[in-house]
Amino acid sequence: MANKALLFDVDGTLVDSTYVHVECWWAAFIECGIAVPRVEIHRRIGMDGALLVRELLATFGGDHVDAAGAAGLANQISALHGRYYSADAVRLRPLPGARELLRAGREAGYTVVLATASSPEEFDIARDVLGCDEEVSAVTTGDDVHRAKPDSSVVDLAVRRAGVAPSDAIMIGDATWDAIAAGKAGVPSIAVRTGGIGEAELRGAGYTRIVEGVDVLWREIVASGAIST
Amino acid sequence: MANKALLFDVDGTLVDSTYVHVECWWAAFIECGIAVPRVEIHRRIGMDGALLVRELLATFGGDHVDAAGAAGLANQISALHGRYYSADAVRLRPLPGARELLRAGREAGYTVVLATASSPEEFDIARDVLGCDEEVSAVTTGDDVHRAKPDSSVVDLAVRRAGVAPSDAIMIGDATWDAIAAGKAGVPSIAVRTGGIGEAELRGAGYTRIVEGVDVLWREIVASGAIST
């Protein structure tokens, strides 16, 4: 086959980390005196962390935020989230079929890219959980791009590192942000439901296909002919 | 107005507990050697706890479950969940507008019922978090019924305790199970999105209206004329 690439979001797609992230962000906000309904965090998991904090502070920050203090508070919340998430690393597991899909993709000749914008520290945690370095041709992390999803930078870079045309790549993600970023980059996208986002929301974000999880994804890709092997 | 009742689910509707329950169930399964994708737990939050455990064991239990040992294992997982949830009680907060809605409902002449099937221990935790006993006319807990949602027993009982006809009550919940149970009981239902379940799933379960959370619910009920004041 021609050179084709599978670009994988990591959190919620390959690693069961979405709900852990929700609790860690929640605890970080609480530590700063701000109670945020968890569903509001959940919907923003997978978007740029700085943007997540900014949006939630604007809505729920109340008296805790003034123009001068907002940036410092945002940095503090992000640092706390990072600390709590590292401490909760023992609670992470690969999602069913994640390792098998990476291996099957590589063996079928796809260039496999992990296209995340999480911090290098968080990415190292996910990488340890997956234990699949030998299947992966390239990675991106938050250190590689100025803005994370829904900006297209991560997907643009992943496509370049894969060395393929955008239309020869496919983005696999669990959040609305993955599809929005992929759409801007001209990359088709497939959603998995393992991040807990509803089907209508995923479809509205631009995913062309939606499956339950990566355990059924390989079969679906092949069956659909979305990428021919 | 005629005697009318508001029946409230508690977890995820009035108290921000859904995501805490997910993590506690996850930890209980892991303690027994069984990794369950968190989204599979999330979708079952609010259903009967014994049914939740049975369904997840059947799908993910693998070698851990044989016919003889399943009941004992299920009891062990439920007990662990209860212990972890009690320990995590400090992580619970009322959802925005929950207290205000209970008060507004009572002051407008509605009979306010908390219609949960959680254990008395878990209900006591939620009650402490809410601190709204004076607004509430009646409650149900898991001790009152043999089967929790999606069975209609909880809603049937809540309607009886409210002393109204089913069509003069309205069930307010965040999970698909609340609408299914209410539908069987002949009670109309309104969904809040704070449990993190997608709009299409909520609508498919039979909710007639869907709003973001209880903070906008009172206005919506009055505006819609779903229950006239």
List the helices and strands and how they pair.
The structure is a homodimer of 229-residue chains.
Chain A: E1 5-8, H1 18-31, H2 38-42, H3 49-60, H4 70-87, H5 98-107, E2 111-115, H6 120-130, E3 138-140, H7 153-162, E4 169-173, H8 176-185, E5 189-192, H9 199-204, E6 209-211, H10 214-224
Parallel strand pairs in A: 1-2, 1-4, 2-3, 4-5, 5-6
Describe this protein's structure.
The structure is a homodimer of 229-residue chains. With 229 residues, chain A is of the alpha/beta class. Chain A has two domains: 5-16 and 93-224, Rossmann fold; 18-90, DNA polymerase, domain 1, CATH 1.10.150. The first copy, chain A, has helices at residues 18-31, 38-42, 49-60, 70-87, 98-107, 120-130, 153-162, 176-185, 199-204, 214-224, and strands at 5-8, 111-115, 138-140, 169-173, 189-192, 209-211. In chain A, helix 1 (18-31) packs across helix 4. The longest helix of chain A has 18 residues, at 70-87. The model of chain A has no long low-confidence stretch (mean pLDDT 92). At the A-B interface, helix 1, helix 2 and helix 9 of A face helix 1, helix 2 and helix 9 of B. Chains A, B: It comes from Dietzia timorensis. Chains A, B: InterPro entries: HAD-like_hydrolase_sf, HAD-like_sf, HAD_sf, PGP-like_dom2.
Short characterization:
Chains A, B: InterPro entries: HAD-like_hydrolase_sf, HAD-like_sf, HAD_sf, PGP-like_dom2. With 229 residues, the first copy, chain A, is α/β, with parallel strands linked by helices. Chain A has helices spanning 18-31, 38-42, 49-60, 70-87, 98-107, 120-130, 153-162, 176-185, 199-204, 214-224, and strands spanning 5-8, 111-115, 138-140, 169-173, 189-192, 209-211.
